[in-house]
Design a protein that fits this description.
Shape: globular
Largest sheet: 5 strands, parallel
Number of helices: 4
Order of helices and strands: EHEHEHEEEHE
CATH architecture: 3-Layer(aba) Sandwich
Low-confidence stretches: none
Number of domains: 1
Strand content: 25-35%
Strand order of the largest sheet: 2-1-3-6-7
């Protein structure tokens, strides 16, 4: 299943939704993670907050391919994208294991194929390097076999990168 998580305005919904099995709009119409760890312990892979991200752990956890479309924010995800990723911590368990000679949380849903980040907006070479490293580390931590990062100067260029 291909999931696209994006922070674009709703005028792009049709294009995004046509390119995936599931689209998640990071539009800020949800609460940020409260750090209760309920999605780890009390009700695994389900957020305690009753809003549109309550099932986000299951959606991202079942994705073979996760594509994140984000505006550049100093070499990192936009605040709305970061909030959604924070709310998806339940894709793993509180237990730890070694993957690639490094300690990581045990995956609740197993391995995935591709963690792809498409970044739009002005970006420096240093920010590009930071994004590549961030995507690589996120992919490893969340059990994705590989990561890719693509850059677009404008929103109009995004469609060709999906």
């Amino acid at each position: 299943m291909k999931v696209i998580l994006y922070d674009l305005d709703h005028s792009h919904d049709a294009v995004i939704e046509s390119g995936c099995d599931r689209a998640i709009a990071a539009d800020g119409k949800y609460a940020p993670c409260q750090g209760c760890f309920g999605c780890w312990t009390r009700h695994p892979a389900e957020c305690a907050m009753k809003d549109k991200l309550q099932q986000i752990c299951r959606i991202i956890g079942q994705a073979d391919e996760l594509v994140i479309i984000t505006k550049n924010l100093y070499g990192g995800y936009s605040a709305d994208i970061k909030n959604v990723l924070d709310r998806s911590i339940g894709t793993s368990t509180p237990f730890s294991t070694y993957r690639g000679r490094q300690m990581h949380h045990t995956l609740r849903y197993g391995k995935h194929s591709l963690w792809k980040v498409i970044v739009y907006g002005e970006i420096t070479e240093a920010e590009k390097a930071t994004f590549r490293y961030l995507a690589e580390r996120n992919a490893i931590n969340d059990g994705f076999e590989r990561s890719e990062v693509a850059f677009a100067q404008s929103v109009e260029e995004l469609e060709g990168l999906l």
